[in-house]
Write a structure and sequence with these properties.
Chain lengths: 288, 756
């Protein structure tokens, strides 16, 4: 399926969806992905002339994740068109977070394709100024998109609680697992792999799919940020130590704009939701 | 309108305790019947409850199956909303992993589901295996997705199949899904059964058969749990029944005891008391008869019985008094107050019984008032009664203490002296005479002396039938005592009463009776009566004899029989007929006459008078003198006087016979229609004495002669006597000296002994 065809289908689906005024009321749109899966997203219509924001949720989550919803509400309220898709992770109309023990047949490349799909969809909607925003591991997927051939309409990146999945694994361990997976892929061994991955003790996945995620490392993230084609802003919670206490320092060391919300966790819950909203609003208004 | 009453007439009277026991038995039977009915109703209720339990259990089962169906539907909805399930339908590459590791453990469908399977839209199992390891079918009949129960060896399983649509609606069919439930396990989790015994649940169908859901409940067999409410109800009913039974039993026993105490015992006491009353042993019943509690009706009965007993006692007392009075009246003479003939006979029998058949030494004393008839007629019955009272008083005074005086009738009194010899009896008799003589009858207005004659019969060893004999002997002795010249007290001796003994001679009796009907059997003996003025036999006294088989029967034997039988008139008629025949046969010398004796009853009898009148034609040739005794005249003097006057007018003469032997009242004599007075032989003999009696008789003869009567002296047995009476002015003399009685020969004359 060509990209043009994809766009066409997306347009057809969007015609089915009603677009309501810019008030923070989301409409669900469905789109058939090039893989044939059906993807869904909430679309918050904004004011004309304002940048559109595409927000990607965290690892195995959905667009209904509270941090994502909070960010979307803030930006929508500010008059931005906001699209919060739920990455299909290989499942049509996925609407629930995917369990660690579920079959993970999705790959990082497919995730990037879906991000590209929704960027194109925004462009098809007339948005020439698109801001990519992500939460947690969604930022890794955005960086993977930005490393590729991002749309020219993408002008800014906003990364909240930037993290990866190697926190509990050493580089050697990841390397060994990756090597085994490569061997299995080479052997066309499709037997499911069950490994400790990210926060999952038993992450069940096909070897190829799992191998795609193992290509990301903390260093590759810093490199990707440093080389980001668009201005990127990182917002971190003061108490978010998933990436280690030196993560903010490392980001800053690479001249990456970082804003730390003191006392906030990885999820900016409780009273820090407002700090997050303020930080996000400031970042979007500041344009980088 | 009379109400019909139920009476068990055939039932014999029974003690009340039987009825009480019968009532108790009826109560027990009624209780048994009641218990049976309660048991029956309880069983019926239990059956109804059991049926209701079965219905409820079936309803529970239906509800549980419905819940299970809902649970399966909910699981189907959850499955369709589950991303991973849709993932498998889109890419079943790792379906085996999902089915074994995710389908049941992800928490999307109930953990109790035994197996889950997904199917392609064609109905083929995603696993593509020939046989599903989970037991679910490999290929579905997509046109017939009906749940069913499969009867399996260990567990029955319920299978549900649903279409799998995109998004849960009917938008797009992705495939199918199937659930497998362990039927009983799922029911146990879904429903808490109150009525259904889940362990007993079983499928009534061949093994391996599929039972579709609509027919599932009806294909299940089960038992119901024992209903605790039913058990409790049964226990309550049973306990209540026993309690009621115990209460009824206690009440029955108390009622029985109360009935026994309050009614039965008092009734029994009353019944015994009535029995005692019936035996005459009843008294007044006290209130101790009653039981624990008084009963007014029984108390009324007791009071009524006591009143009745009191009245009965009063009646007994009254009756006893009346009996005594009656006995007194029955055994006493109302006039004199002494014992009567009934008492006399009963005393004799009592004495006989007391002797127990042993012979009695007894003396029978019979008292008779002389000339009582004359006293009675002269002074009236009231005086006569007072005379009898005086006699009884005198006699009673004379008897010994303990001796009883009886009035046997008229002027006849008697006493029985037990263990008494003849001498003592005679002494008692003499004492009686003295007492009577001492009694002043003048106070009663009786101027003539009142005397009694006593006959004594003393018979040692008297037997039961001796009373009549004694009485007859005493009677004979008494008559003997009455004879002129006797001592007023006579003891019976066999020789004194040959004539009287003739009473017992059947042969003589027969001769006497035959003479009554045949005057020719009479043999008249004529004794000459000498006229002292003419010294010739002026007439003959006709003296009757009867020719018996053993010789002549003399007057001494004839008249007692005649008098005893009351045949005086008949005998007089026979004698008159016999004399008439003698006259007619001219056996009596013409120019003489005859005197004939007429009895007392005969004098007043019209037939006798008429018969005498038949002799009137002979008066032309004969002097006919009618002799009557003083006693006969006195008895009914008026009638006698009338008849005698009539005869006197016809030419008959009347002579007063035996004057001086009895009452000999000159006042009577003056009023009597007599022509001649015949001095009794006792008076004539007294002329031979030197005492005042001779003077008295002589003066009496003068007196009577001067009064105009002709005097006839009887018993002239010597010339001296004949001279004496001639000197005294007697007109006629009669006696052996003049001539003995002798039969007449035709044309013959009686022999005269005296030379006139």
């Amino acid at each position: 399926m060509t990209r043009n065809t994809t766009r066409l289908l997306a347009v057809l689906f969007l015609m089915m969806a009603s677009v309501l005024p810019w008030a923070s009321h989301a409409n669900v749109v469905e789109a058939t992905l090039p893989s044939g899966k059906i993807a869904t997203a909430n679309v918050y219509a904004g004011k004309n002339g304002r940048p559109a924001v595409l927000i990607i949720h965290g690892f195995l989550q959905t667009r209904e994740f509270p941090t994502v919803v909070s960010m979307a509400d803030t930006l929508s309220s500010a008059g931005h068109t906001v699209v919060t898709p739920t990455l299909s992770l290989g499942i049509s109309r996925r609407n629930k977070s995917l369990a660690c023990e579920a079959l993970h047949l999705h790959s990082l490349d497919e995730d990037v394709e879906e991000i590209a799909f929704w960027v194109e969809w925004l462009r098809s909607q007339g948005h020439a100024h698109i801001i990519l925003a992500g939460h947690s591991y969604g930022n890794v997927q955005l960086l993977a998109y930005l490393q590729g051939k991002p749309s020219a309409a993408v002008r800014q990146a906003l990364m909240v609680s930037l993290t990866d999945v190697e926190v509990k694994q050493s580089a050697q361990q990841r390397a060994r697992i990756a090597e085994e997976l490569r061997e299995r892929v080479a052997k066309k061994d499709k037997k499911l792999a069950k490994v400790e991955f990210g926060h999952c003790r038993n992450y069940v996945s096909s070897p190829a799919a799992l191998l795609s995620y193992l290509s990301v490392s903390r260093g590759s993230i810093l490199d990707a940020l440093a080389k980001s084609p668009v201005p990127a802003t990182v917002i971190m919670g003061g108490k978010d130590d998933r990436m280690g206490s030196d993560w903010v320092g490392k980001l800053k060391a690479r001249d990456i704009q970082v804003r730390v919300v003191p006392g906030a966790s990885h999820f900016f819950d409780n009273q820090y939701e407002f700090d997050l909203q303020e930080a996000v609003s400031q970042a979007v208004r500041g344009g980088g | 309108m009379r109400r019909p009453s139920l009476r068990f007439a055939w039932l014999t009277p029974r003690p009340i305790v039987h009825y009480v026991l019968a009532l108790l038995l009826v109560l027990v039977v009624a209780l048994g019947v009641l218990a049976g009915l309660v048991f029956h109703d309880t069983n019926r209720l239990k059956q109804q409850i059991a049926q209701a339990d079965r219905d409820l259990a079936r309803q529970e089962l239906s509800e549980a199956v419905a819940l299970l169906t809902e649970r399966a539907n909910a699981a189907a909805q959850a499955m369709m909303a589950w991303d991973e399930a849709r993932q498998q339908l889109e890419d079943p590459t790792y379906y085996g992993y999902w089915r074994t590791s995710r389908a049941l453990s992800a928490g999307v469908v109930p953990e109790t589901i035994e197996a889950v399977d997904l199917y392609e839209p064609s109905g083929r199992n995603l696993s593509g295996e020939a046989a599903s390891q989970a037991g679910l079918p490999v290929q579905l009949d997509t046109g017939r997705l009906r749940p069913y129960l499969k009867n399996e060896p260990n567990h029955d399983h319920l299978y549900f199949f649903f279409p799998f649509h995109q998004g849960g609606g009917q938008s797009r069919l992705l495939g199918y899904m199937g659930f497998k439930f362990d039927f009983q396990y799922e029911l146990a989790r879904l429903h808490k059964f109150r009525y259904l015994d889940l362990k007993s649940l079983r499928v009534v169908a061949p093994e391996g058969e599929h039972i579709e859901l609509p027919h599932l409940v009806s294909a299940l067999a089960f038992e119901t749990l024992s209903n605790p409410e039913t058990r409790e109800l049964e226990k309550i009913l049973t306990r209540s029944l026993f309690e009621i039974g115990a209460i009824i039993a206690v009440i029955s026993l108390i009622g029985y005891a109360a009935l026994i105490s309050v009614v039965t015992k008092p009734l029994r006491r009353l019944s015994l008391h009535i029995d005692s009353m019936r035996r005459g042993q009843g008294g007044l019943l006290g209130d101790s008869y009653r039981g624990l509690l008084p009963v007014s009706e029984l108390e009324n009965i007791r009071q009524s019985l006591n009143d009745y007993q009191t009245q009965l006692d009063d009646m007994h007392v009254s009756l006893a008094r009346k009996n005594r009075e009656l006995w007194t009246l029955a055994h006493h003479d109302p006039l004199t107050g002494i014992f009567n003939r009934r008492a006399f006979e009963e005393d004799w029998e009592a004495a006989r019984r007391a002797q127990d058949g042993a012979p009695l030494d007894v003396a029978f004393l019979l008292f008779d008032c002389d000339h009582f008839k004359a006293i009675n007629d002269t002074y009236g019955h009231q005086v006569g009664d007072m005379v009898l009272q005086g006699l009884s008083e005198s006699l009673h005074e004379a008897l010994r203490a303990g001796d009883r005086l009886y009035r046997l009738g008229g002027d006849e009194f008697a006493t029985l002296l037990y263990s008494t010899d003849l001498g003592q009896a005679r002494q008692v008799a003499e004492r009686c005479l003295e007492c009577v003589n001492r009694f002043d009858f003048m106070d009663l207005g009786v101027k003539e002396p009142v005397r009694i004659s006593v006959g004594i019969a003393c018979q040692p060893g008297a037997q039961a039938d001796s009373l009549k004999t004694l009485h007859r002997q005493a009677d004979m002795a008494m008559y003997y005592a009455k004879r002129p010249g006797q001592g007023k007290v006579a003891v019976y001796s066999p020789d004194m009463g040959e004539g009287q003994e003739a009473l017992v001679s059947n042969a003589e009796n027969s001769a006497i009776y035959e003479a009554l009907s045949d005057p020719d059997r009479l043999e008249m003996h004529y004794q000459p009566v000498l006229s002292l003025s003419s010294s010739r036999v002026e007439y003959y006294e006709a003296l009757v004899r009867i020719r018996g088989d053993e010789g002549l029967i003399m007057p001494g034997s004839i008249f007692p029989v005649i008098e005893l039988r009351g045949l005086e008139c008949e005998f007089d008629l026979a004698v008159l007929e016999r004399i008439r025949r003698d006259l007619d046969a001219s056996r009596i010398p013409e120019g003489t006459g005859l005197s004939l004796n007429v009895s007392g009853p005969g004098i007043i009898n019209g037939r006798i008078a008429d018969k005498l009148m038949l002799l009137a034609p002979y008066l032309a040739s004969y002097k006919v003198v009618i002799e009557v005794t003083e006693t006969a005249l006195i008895t009914q003097i008026a009638q006698a006087s009338a008849n005698l006057n009539r005869l006197r007018k016809a030419g008959f003469l009347v002579a007063l016979d035996d004057f001086g032997s009895g009452y000999s009242s000159l006042r009577y004599l003056a009023g009597m229609p007599v022509d001649l007075v015949k001095f009794d032989i006792s008076m004539v003999r007294s002329l031979e004495t030197q005492g005042r009696q001779a003077v008295f008789v002589a003066d009496l003869a003068h007196l009577i002669k001067d009064a105009g009567y002709q005097l006839v002296a009887e018993g002239i047995e010597s010339e001296t006597m004949l001279l004496k009476v001639t000197q005294l002015g007697f007109s006629h003399a009669q006696g052996f000296h003049v001539g003995r009685p002798a039969p007449l020969v035709k044309q013959g004359k009686p022999e005269l002994r005296v030379a006139v």
